[in-house]
Specification:
Structural class: alpha+beta
Strand order of the largest sheet: 11-12-10-14-13
C-alpha cells in the first residue's frame, strides 16, 4: 500500500510539472502539501528540476525517513539552484509550514544557536521531508542526537577529507586503515559517501554516550592512523601544513548541532 501511494505521488508530481502548474499533494496520511515552480532547474548542467528532486525524495523516503526520525535538521537551501548562492538554515524562522510539519523547540541552555526559543524542523515525516524540499533545501542534514535526548549522540563519525589533488583511491586506502583499526577493537562502523570528495565513517554509540566521549574516541583512532601512516594520513588542522597527497582524518565534527 505504501509503495502504491508513493508511486501515485510521483505520478502527480510528474503531471504537475509537465503541465507547468502548481498544485496540492495529498500525502498517504491525509496531510496536504502545496508545491510550486516544479520546472525550476536546480542542476543546470544536467537540466535537473525541482520537480525531479521532489520525485527522488518521494521514491527514497522509506530509506531516508528512519535515518532522520526525531532528529533536528540543518538545511542548506539553494533557492536558485546549485550554481547560485546558497545559505544554511538552522531553525524555522518566518516560514509557515502546513499542518503536519514537525517543529520542536530545543531548550535555550542546550541549543547551540544561542537564541531564545530556537524552533527547529525535526525529521521523520514525509510532509517535513517534502516541505523542506519545496523551500529548496536540497541538503537536509540530521543531528547525531534526537530531539528527546539532544546531549546523547547515537553515533560518532570520522570525516576523511582529501587535500586538493589527492585521488579518491587514497581516501579509500585510508578508509580501509580506519576499518581495520576499528575491527581490531571489535567496533562496528559504516562508510558513507560525503556528497563531496571524501568519505564519512559512522560508528554507533551506546545509549547515553555524550558527544564529548564520541569525539574522544574518534580522536584516538584518527591519531593512531596518522601516526602509523604519516605519508597518507594526517590530523594536522592547518591545510598549508598538511603533506601533499594526504587525507585529513577529521574527528572534530562530533559537536552538538554540527552535521555531516
Amino acid at each position: 500500500a505504501q509503495t502504491r501511494a508513493l508511486a501515485a505521488l510521483v505520478d502527480r508530481l510528474s503531471a504537475l510539472e509537465d503541465a507547468r502548474q502548481n498544485g496540492d499533494l495529498g500525502l498517504p496520511n491525509d496531510d496536504t502539501l502545496r508545491v510550486t515552480n516544479l520546472s525550476k532547474v536546480f542542476w543546470p548542467a544536467l537540466g535537473t528540476t525541482k520537480g525531479e528532486l521532489l520525485r527522488y525524495y518521494v521514491t527514497v523516503a522509506p530509506f531516508i525517513l528512519p535515518a532522520v526520525a526525531d532528529r533536528p535538521l540543518v538545511m542548506k537551501r539553494f533557492p536558485n539552484g546549485i550554481e547560485s548562492p546558497a545559505f544554511y538554515q538552522q531553525r524555522s524562522r518566518l516560514e509557515k509550514p502546513p499542518a503536519g510539519v514537525r517543529i520542536e523547540t530545543i531548550a535555550d541552555e542546550i541549543d547551540p544557536i544561542g537564541e531564545p526559543d530556537a524552533r527547529r524542523f525535526v525529521g521523520g515525516d514525509l510532509i517535513t521531508l517534502l516541505y523542506m524540499t519545496q523551500i529548496a533545501a536540497i541538503s537536509q542534514d540530521p543531528w547525531f542526537s534526537r530531539v528527546s535526548s539532544p546531549l546523547d549522540a547515537d553515533y560518532t563519525a570520522i570525516d576523511l577529507d582529501p587535500l586538493e589533488g589527492t585521488p579518491f583511491s587514497r581516501v579509500l586506502e585510508v578508509a580501509r586503515l580506519v576499518h581495520d583499526e576499528l575491527e581490531s577493537l571489535k567496533v562496528p562502523s559504516v562508510p558513507k559517501t560525503s556528497g563531496s570528495s571524501g568519505l564519512h565513517i559512522y560508528i554507533p554509540l551506546a545509549p547515553g554516550t555524550t558527544y564529548e566521549s564520541g569525539m574522544l574516541f574518534c580522536q584516538i583512532v584518527a591519531t593512531v592512523i596518522a601516526a602509523r601512516h604519516p605519508k597518507i594520513a594526517t590530523v594536522e588542522r592547518t591545510v598549508r601544513a598538511r603533506r601533499r597527497g594526504t587525507v585529513y582524518v577529521d574527528y572534530l565534527q562530533n559537536i552538538l548541532g554540527k552535521t555531516l
